[in-house]
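Q: I'm writing a short explainer about VOC family protein for a general audience and would like to include a description of its predicted shape. Could you first generate the structure from this sequence?
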Amino acid sequence: MSGLVPYLHFDGTARNALTFYQSVFGGELELFTYGEFSRTDGPKDAIAHGSLSGLVTLFAADAAPGEASVSMAGMEFSLLGTASPDELTRWFAALADGGTVLDALQLRPWGDHDGMVKDRFGVAWLIGYQG
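A: Of course. Here's the predicted structure. Afterward I'll give you a sentence or two in plain language.
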């Protein structure tokens, strides 16, 4: 695998987050627990490593006690032109469900559509398409 792949550390919600992202983006989901990795620094059913592979690829895990978890400020994940306009519009709506629309997906003066949303797990997304 090459390229930039975000690796998110959640505060005990990695399974829920990755399952949610799979429902939004599709793709193949793999989850491995602390127990399966013989880790003793957290609950055996916590996620030690998870991956979503597809049009959107993400890695995630549950942070061990004392480790930092996701906190996004001054950044977002950009999915500009990643899929068809209809699919991107669906993604935006799905990510907004239980989250917060920061800037509605809309036609911009330069002729493209984009918008920003922070999902229910605190991850910010910029979604848009041309024309």
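A: For your explainer, you could say: Strands lie at 7-10, 28-33, 47-53, 58-62, 77-80, 100-107, 113-118, 124-129.
Q: Perfect, that's easy to follow.
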